[in-house]
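Sample pair:
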Amino acid sequence: DKPGTSRRFFLTGAAGLAGAAGVIASAPSAMAKPTGSSGPLDPFWGAHQSGIITPAQRHIYFAAFDLLATKREDVAALMKVWTDAAARMTSGQTAVELTEDGANPPTDSGETVGLEPQRLTITFGFGPGLFSKDGQDRYGLASPRPKALVDLPRFNGDQLVPERTGGDLAIQACADDAQVAFHAVRQLARLGDGVVQIRWAQPGFVGGYAPGETGRNLMGFKDGTMNPLTSDPKLMDQFIWVGVEGGWMRGVSYMVARPVRIALEHWDR
């Protein structure tokens, strides 16, 4: 990892989501690099989720989901399916085996067939709504909810749009190709049909600055200069990774996604 690389992305819109970006439980398996895929890969399996201190890619597609499932086992099954699909896509494969029996649609929409994985990372987050929602413990998970995992407060000047605020689950897909990032979220949404539905989504991008260089946002300001160095494990343990005090969340991180709408034409005037 190159030091000083920012994980910030400059997005448009207006929303807020607090989430725990956790390690998804599933037995790791050996992932062979697919034939014909010679592009750079970012490992999916590891001590921490990728896409948190990973050197920033050029494109992001972020989506927040509402859970439709009423049973805990359905949520668990979804996370296993998503984990397997994410491991495949980050290795340059389709989300699932690409088959079609004539009666059913293809199991992957296929728009990335022939494209390299482009350093794709897929990061999952749990919002407060997974643990309890509207005062109800939907899945028996209220007690292990981290105390710090709550909805963001309303700040002065906020004009929050309910349809673009909050969410029970989140997916952050980052890649050096916009189509690869979009494809990842699209396939996971397809696989989750009936269990989840997209609440809001937001694409984003950063300029092609040199590794370690602080990039500029769309107003021309350098953005992310004061981020802690991802190459320093002590700083990561201090500011990014939850420690032993987090119990089941040890080695996990908190994420706040808060896109802000900015009228650039007024700024230019």
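Residues 89 and 95 are 5 Å apart (CA to CA).
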